[in-house]
Amino acid sequence: MSRNYFDSTFLPPLREVIRSNNLSSRNSYGQHFLLDINLIRRIVKNAGNLVGETVIEIGPGPGGLTRGLLEVAEKVIVIERDHRFSNALQQLAIKSNGRLEVIIGDATQIFLKEVISSNRTAKIVSNLPYNAGTKILIHWLRDLSRINSMTLMFQKEVAERITARSGNKSYGRLSILSQWLCHTQKLFNVPASAFVPAPKVISSLITLKPRTSKIFPAKFSALEAVTRATFGQRRKMLKSSLKTLIECPEIILHDTEIDTTMRAEQISIEKYCAIARNYAKIHSTDLN
Fold first, then answer.
1. pLDDT digits (tens, 9 = 90+) for 152-187
2. CB atoms within 10 A of CB 76
3. CATH homologous superfamily of domain 220-286?
């Protein structure tokens, strides 16, 4: 099977696609487009070997990153919430010889098992919309069974929250949920000038590779609830922040050998999972 499935050099420039389809970014969707083919190919390269793979992209917009993915992947599935981009993406699908599938819909409402055949997994490569990236990631973390890897662009601040370790000021709920289920790594920063329109912040590309098994046992819903409570009041001691969730948090903290005066960012993933297990025992009927 040839490595060169698709040659994007024969396509009209992305700026021309945007102009001819009367497209523009919308702040309400957190849209910032990647048009630099060299940067696009760097992102694709950092996603690993995509030859023969099914790749999913969220928020393709006019299809800049999509073009780079089609150059190497066997199949690309794009999910775009903004119907204005449908025509441009369908035009690209026609030129892909059936290797691009376009889905117009909300990625947070679409389950990957609905778009990937039962015997396949996919790699996700996306420049995620700024205002929905965190929500989309948590949606995927709930079921990683069809995901081989994720290479994602976030605002730098969000990327640091995903990859931060305990004790770091960026460490939080997103760090714990992501690292509990995945190996995470920050790859490189991307300046605001690389996007159209330019955002007010730096962006970062990161990878998340699902672990073969959870590093510590816990229910997702329980761990999510515990971390939401503690980091929702991160300046408070655990014995205070957990009272919004547990009537007598001192008992659970004592059982897990955690100092009740510690604060949220001081607690390891292992200890959070222990708290979540004890919380689940008490509130099993409230958790799925």
1. 999 999 999 999 999 999 999 999 999 999 999 999
2. 32
3. rRNA adenine dimethylase, C-terminal domain (1.10.8.100)
CATH 3.40.50.150 fits 8-210, yes or no: yes
173 backbone dihedrals φ, ψ, rounded to 5°: -55, -40
Residue 37: exposure state from Cβ atoms within 10 A (0-12, 13-18, ≥19) = middle
Q: What are phi and psi of 279, to 5 degrees?
A: -65, -40
| Mean pLDDT of the region 107-128 | 91
The pLDDT of residue 46: 97
**CA–CA distance, 101 with 90 (Å, rounded to integer):** 8
Q: Which pTM does this prediction carry?
A: 0.92
